[in-house]
Amino acid sequence: MDRQIIDCHIHPAVDRETDFCWYKKSGTIRKQFDDLKRAGISKACGSIVVAKIPKSFEEIKKLNDCALSIRDRFPDFYIPGMQIHPAFPDESCREIERCCKNHDVRWIGELVGYLMGYPDDYVSNNMIEIMKIASKFKVVVNFHCASIPVIENLCRKIPGINFVLAHPGQGKEFLERINLVEKIKNLYLDISGTGIDRYGMLKKAVEIASYQKIIFGTDYPINNPAVYVHGVIFERLSENATCAIFSNNFLRITKLLTH
Ligand SMILES: [Zn+2]
Q1: CA 143 / ligand 1 centre spacing (Å)
Q2: Distance 39 CA to ligand 1 centre (A)
Q3: Which terminal residue of the chain, N or C, has fewer Cβ atoms less than 10 Å from its own Cβ?
Q4: How far is the CA of 163 from the centre of ligand 1 (A)?
């Protein structure tokens, strides 16, 4: 069956610092996108990440400019995700405005605070100031956060944003996360990272939170994207649920739905 599959969670590798593949070099952007296509993925979205604390906002802006230039080269495949940083609230707010107004950006993240010097800092005054601007532009925020109270607090403080929590996790952690996704209207879950390999996870997630709250993602190039595509198919959800998870939920919350 020909289904559109949109990966909401990739990190394009543009040099050694931004390449998170553990066992090999990811190669050119074209090679990375060919990899994703070979796994059956039709489009991919996400931010460029570095594992260091930035000394100036210029370092963050450079990642965003790079993402925008990849979109210029691959407009039919890549949807840019931008970075912001709570150590630079004013600059981050202006950057959201620049990217959303001038470049039609719909997605922030994945934000990975633990790699960039702000572990689980998603409800500080600075971050809330930034999120308020993001809310004004109706941009979706994909973020990595291990703290249930922080996730809940953020979503409740900024009800105008659709937040996408990265990674289901496993066992008790997964159940806590998916129950929170069920409870909070503006919170979704992407299935990248740990989770899909625990057989039955996706069906359980759909049972608890509904298929409308689950979004396909891989965390490529850390992870093998084919594992996630086939992992979804193998759980034999309804066609509606499968299509929603693979693409329709993403298109709905980013307002990229054309029909
Ligand atoms: Zn990631």
Answers
A1: 8
A2: 18
A3: C
A4: 15
Closest to 208 (Cα-Cα) out of 183, 233, 241, 173: 183
Query: Is the residue at 1 inside a domain?
Result: no
How many angstroms is it from 12 CA to the middle of ligand 1?
10
Residues 6+ apart with CB under 8 A from 112: 49, 144
Question: How far does the centroid of ligand 1 lie from the alpha carbon of residue 52, in Å?
Answer: 15
First-last CA distance in the chain = 20
Does the pTM surpass 0.85? The reply is yes
CATH number (domain holding residue 112): 3.20.20.140
Is there a domain that residue 259 lies in? Answer: no
The burial of 226, by beta-carbon neighbours within 10 Å (0-12 exposed, 13-18 middle, 19 or more buried), is given as middle
Distance 96 CA to ligand 1 centre (A): 20
Question: If you search the block for the tokens 């100036």, which residue do you land on?
Answer: 56
Q: So what's the pLDDT on residue 258? A: 60
Domain interval for residue 225: 6-254
The stretches in the chain having pLDDT less than 70 are 1, 258-259
